[in-house]
Amino acid sequence: MTPAADIPLKEPTISAAAGDAEQFERARIDASTRVPVLMFYASAMVWLLIGTLLAGFVSFKLHSPDWFSDVSFLTWGRLRPVHMNVMVYGWASMVAMGTAIWLMARLCRTTLRHPLIIVTGIWFWNIGVVIGVIGILMGYSTGYDWLEFPPYAAVVLFVAYALIISWAVLMFRFRRGDQIYITQWYLLAAFLWFPWLYAAAQAMLFVVPVQGVMQAAVGWWFANNLLFLWLGAIALGTAYYMIPKVIGRPVYSYHLATIGFWTYALFSSWTGMQRLVDGPFPAWMITASIAATILTIIPVATVGLNHHMTMQGYFPVMRYSPTLRFTVFGAMSYTVFSVVGILISLRSTARYLHFTEASIAYSHMGLYAFFTMIMFGSMYYIVPRLVGREWRYATLIKLHFWASAYGVGLMSLMLLVGGLTQGADQNDTSMTFIESVASVLPYVRGRTVAALLLTVSHFIFAFHFGLMLFGLGRTSTVPTFLNPVEAEGSEEHL
Amino acid sequence: MKGLVPLFIGLFGTFAFSWLGLTVIPNWQIGALNPQTDEEGTDAYPTPKSGMADRGRQIYAANGCIYCHSQQIRPDYDSADIDRVRDAGPSPGPKWAERRSAPRDYIFDRPVVLGQERMGPDVANIGKAAPTEEEKPAASPAANVAATSPAPAQSPPPNASAPKPGTSGPPPAAPATSPAPPAGSPPAPPAAAANPSPAASASPNPTGLPPAYSEAWHHRHLYSPRSMSPDNRDSTMPAYKFLYEKHPISGERSADAVQLEGRDAPPPGWEIVPTYEAKCLVAYLMSLDQSHPLKEVKTAPGGAGPPAGSPPAAPAGSLAPAPPKK
Amino acid sequence: MNDQTPNPTSLTRQGMDYGETSDVQEVHAAIQREKREPRVGLEPLSIWLIAVYGIAIFTGGAYLGRYSGNFSGDGLDPLGGPPPAKKGGGPQGQQQQAELSPRDRGKKIFAANCQTCHQANGLGVPGQYPPLAGSEFTTGGSKRPAMIVLKGLQGPVTVKGQKFGSAVMQPWDKTLADQKIADVLTYERSEWGNSASPVTAEQIAALRKELANHPDSYTEPDVLAVPENAELPGGAPAGAAPSKPGEAAKPGGSPPPSPPKS
Fold first, then answer.
1. What is the pLDDT of residue A395?
2. Most buried in the list A37, B125, C141, C169, measured by CB within 10 Å?
3. Gap between the Cα atoms of B201 and B217, Å rounded
4. How confident is the model at residue C100 (pLDDT cuts 50, 70, 90)?
């Protein structure tokens, strides 16, 4: 295996003028996206902190329930949906849109004109989330997972989205170059699918409600598709940009990318019923979702192989680049998350894992280990280009990474093992039900420890991001490496 | 990929495929179910819930009960849901269910609250677990004997509605041993005049644990989950104290005051009463009963036979076409 | 770390520009050192990957085929064939209407409508609901019980020597069809030790017409006005002419019990 430093990374040289023109163009694009993207990130960070504090509270109250029980808006049953929705709509959607706007601008090679439209959209989105949160706390939660916002909050979110999406589409309309890169497929797909998804769910649940259990089917079709077709698609698209960009090599195979994309679109969207295994539904619906979950091996293997072969020989770069480290962690988590998904969906294992904390583990592996880590990576790449400074403290980045990695790893482990224990006890009729609860409580306490780790991690990152936002980053021509660069000249390829 | 048109067609197509397949087509299959009735057009199941119970469902959803309690019974080949016995109550206690849940059980539920997790037991049949009047322990001999109420599954809780005047329609059956009720009216909830305690449907004594899964039990459970017995200290259910009010006892103790003891009990001279929302929530819980047999679902063998007159045959085969007796 | 402290004199504040330096190279250092935008390679698919695809498709497809419970809306059981209610097999098959005798149908109607008061054992509730077992009203001529079922009964009544007076029996003419009333009467008249003639739908239909102008609810005197052994006309295959309202029973005695329909 030739050492990384020996593999020539510099592309065939282009003329200085062409190189300068490219860089000049990128600078202009970055400058045009600065305000909207930074606003997305700032809003997202605030929601992340709020959501993380709520997460700690919710986790703690699950095993020690007697805090604040006389206050209606602090009851666990309302804080939990607030946490979920703040994380999904406040943090995840906003950071996704921020990154997507920047990526779209870069890849379409157009500047973002009239950024105030997007800024207005951001304000509306924030207002929508606030209205939704207040609605839930006041006792108007709708009762559907990830759709707990009262419908009037959804209207505001739609208005916001219309403003934002129209600009993304405009940039695409005026793109330069004839190739549509992989990332753009994913981003376009996500932008197109999300409004359809959200509108269909709102219509079929609140406007012209479907009858009976179909409401649950629609609800989980929506929730799973939100994770896969909105957040997951943007995360995968981001990974397809960041990995080859940071290491300077092309993506391994176009064919793999195509197959991966289309099978992802086809199969991930059918997995909704995996959360309702053995529920009161015609068996074919549940089986179709389980079969689709099995078939998601195809996109997982494909995308995983593509990234792996792209990275072949460049894994050592992860020592230095925060972007690469976070992104590769996220991409690998995608594989693990999907395998866990298959395991909890099969009827024979769902017997023991359904109705337990294991489904929480699954949700968090998808939302955090996969999506959020990739988004962190993208923020580490994009923010310096928008503020003209480098990240100030490598130590903080390392702390952020390890606290997040251990936090989500501990959480997933605790909840999967705890869920298995809980499920085994639930299925053992010689034990009382309360014993199954008692058996999972130690793992839930372990999860609170993980929540503490994640809280520390997010506050560190928020502080660091705040420094960047207020122009207090490092002024430097060299990026912030996570570890001192050893080999002579190797900083060239970073 | 160069072509924008194939890309968009593909995006539309894959999404439409899942939307049609997982929502539209199943909606066509199970989205317009009617309640099941027998041939006479009676014995409809399910029926829409009373106003209080419906409001109770909204409260159930809005307060996040769904994140710990499920309301779906899985089949016996994939779970132990049906055979699991409820923790509280007499031993052997009531089972969780007679049969698995079916789509038809939920046609009047909006929102449908199937639930995703079980940090608390499944409640699909918790209304059925409520004790019948005969099973309630009587504080005084005359207390509960004459007081009868219709089966919990079919009626709103006795607190919430007055019994119908007995001038039309068949009044509910009274056990043959009851003393003659006042002329012209069916038995009223505060039973015979001989009953000294204020309310018969709540347990007659103001402290001590109410009968398992009765209304009073639910109120106490909501107010102070960890005070239930058998030992419920491992329960992590939040205490819904904000659904209850504390006010001084004026004259007599209220009929629906929550029975509490120990540290939860209010100071002397005070009582805890449920708010209207708490009553709605408990009305909803008392109405949860999926034990009615459905044609499309196999009832567990050895479970209670279907009520007479409903379509699935009773195990004894009493509906076998017998030769006419003459 | 390759840290470089910025030259303080080159820091000029420019509003929202985050204090960019005038040194273009420095400002765009991040962009300068960037690689080109990502490109895609064209490596071919590995055969092993195609094998993985094949296994996944096979497993998923097999699972879908095996466990889909016939793709029907009723199929809740993944291994199930067509749902049982649609086939005649098993206990559910006995619900077929045509296979039940009038007595059996009547029993079901009784259970759904009458049992709450008159009790499943036909003994009623003392003081409240009269018994049907051994009751002279039930087992005598068919006209009296048919009148009571059609139009209801209120006020005090004495059955088998006991007084009843508190409850009211509702009229069933609007709720139950002729066949159902006939079946339930047939059942009552042959159950609990009773043995009286069955009643047919035609008899009830005729009585219904006869009583069409009668206001609801009889009282005991009304019923007692009808002779005890008054049978409804039409019990024999050839029906006699309907009598006028309130008149005494037909001459000609009771027709012989007609064979039960099946």
1. 93
2. A37
3. 11
4. low
* Residue reference for tokens 């085994």: A424
From the CA of C113, how many Å to the nearest CA of chain A?
Answer: 30
Separation CA C19–CA C22 (nearest Å) = 9
Q: Please give the angle made by the CA atoms of A69, A87 and A101, to the nearest 5 degrees.
A: 160
pTM for the model stands at: 0.73
Cis peptide before A3 (omega within 30 of 0): no
Q: Which residues of B touch A282 (CB under 8 A)?
A: 26, 29-30, 103
> Average pLDDT per run of 10 along chain A, which is 494 residues long?
48 55 83 93 97 94 81 90 96 96 91 88 96 95 93 94 86 81 93 93 93 94 95 96 92 91 94 92 92 94 93 89 95 95 91 93 96 97 91 93 96 95 91 91 94 96 95 82 65 46
Which residue in chain B has the smallest CA separation from C114?
A: B170
State whether residue C21 sits within 8 Å of chain B by CB: no
Inter-chain residue contact A284 with C69, CB threshold 8 Å = yes
Indicate the residue type of B190. Answer: P
Contacts of C103 in chain B (CB under 8 A): 322, 324-325
Residue type, A127: I
Q: Which residues of A touch B107 (CB under 8 A)?
A: 211-212
Instruction: Give the domain C100-225 fold.
Output: Cytochrome Bc1 Complex; Chain D, domain 2 (1.10.760)
- The class (CATH top level) of A314-483 is mainly alpha
Q: Is B169 on the interface with C (CB under 8 A)?
A: yes
Question: Could you read off the pLDDT of B245-255 as tens digits, one per residue?
Answer: 998 988 888 88
Spell out the domain ranges in chain C.
45-78, 100-225
Of A250, A298, A478, the CB nearest to C40: A250
Can you read off the two tokens belonging to residue B52? 């209080």
Can you read off the two tokens belonging to residue B279?
Answer: 């009553």
Q: What would the two tokens of residue B200 be?
A: 């018969």
Q: HEC profile for chain A?
A: CCCHHHCCCCCCCCCHHHHHHHHHHHHHHHHHHHHHHHHHHHHHHHHHHHHHHHHHHHHHHHHCCCCCCCCHHHCHHHHHHHHHHHHHHHHHHHHHHHHHHHHHHHHHCCCCCCHHHHHHHHHHHHHHHHHHHHHHHHHHCCCCCCCCCCHHHHHHHHHHHHHHHHHHHHHHHCCCCCCCCHHHHHHHHHHHHHHHHHHHHHHHHHHCCCCCCHHHHHHHHHHHHHHHHHHHHHHHHHHHHHHHHHHCCCECEHHHHHHHHHHHHHHHCCHHHHHHCCCCCCHHHHHHHHHHHHHCHHHHHHHHHHHHHHHCCCHHHHHCCHHHHHHHHHHHHHHHHHHHHHHHHCHHHHHHHCECCHHHHHHHHHHHHHHHHHHHHHHHHHHHHHHCCECCCHHHHHHHHHHHHHHHHHHHHHHHHHHHHHHHHHCCCCCCHHHHHHHHHHHHHHHHHHHHHHHHHHHHHHHHHHHHHCCCCECCCCCCCCCCCCCCCHHHHC
Q: Are A111 and A46 in contact (CB under 8 A)?
A: no
Tokens standing for B2? Answer: 């160069």
Contact check, Cβ <8 Å, B170/C74: no
Residue C22 contacts B, CB cutoff 8 Å: no
Say if residues A492 and A403 touch (Cβ distance below 8 Å): no
Residue B319: pLDDT band with limits 50, 70, 90? very low
| Encoded tokens for A285 | 């619906």
C-alpha distances out from residue A138 to A3, A78, A152, B17, C11, Å? 60, 9, 14, 38, 50
Rounded Cα–Cα distance for residues A192 and A172 (Å)? 13
Give the residue among A203, A209, A29, A198 at the shortest CA–CA distance from A105: A29
Shortest CA gap B2–chain A (Å): 5
3-state DSSP call for residue B277? helix
